[in-house]
């Protein structure tokens, strides 16, 4: 059985590394791709999406389209072996960024819709 380490790293009640089922593990990986700033990881300087920098950018239809493209590209680059991205929707209001992603897990075919948020509310 494959172990999927929980993100962020935690310990379970027995003092061992907490594991997740595949769906929660993949959700954690997506979150890492979305909210990691390129250059933040020393050994993978191009990892991430740069999404956090866009929270305070002036809101416009062009920014929403660019952000949607940025997120979809990053997910396809870093997660293509695990998921198929079906839909990415971006909502920016004041300093809150909401990303709605619809995807399916390649191994099981199960479909999920997840919402990720960054910033104040």
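Q: What amino acid sequence fits the structure above?
A:
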């Amino acid at each position: 059985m494959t172990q999927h380490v929980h993100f962020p790293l935690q310990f379970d009640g027995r003092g061992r590394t907490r594991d997740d089922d595949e769906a929660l593990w993949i959700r954690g990986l997506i979150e890492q791709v979305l909210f990691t700033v390129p250059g933040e990881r020393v050994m993978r300087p191009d990892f991430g999406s740069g999404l956090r920098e866009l929270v305070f950018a002036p809101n416009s239809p062009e920014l929403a389209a660019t952000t949607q493209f940025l997120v979809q590209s990053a997910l396809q680059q870093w997660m293509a072996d695990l998921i198929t991205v079906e839909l990415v929707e971006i909502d920016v209001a004041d300093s809150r960024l909401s990303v709605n992603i619809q995807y399916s897990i390649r191994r099981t075919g199960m479909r999920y819709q997840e919402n990720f948020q960054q910033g104040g509310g």
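Q: And what stands out in the fold?
A: The mean pLDDT is 83.
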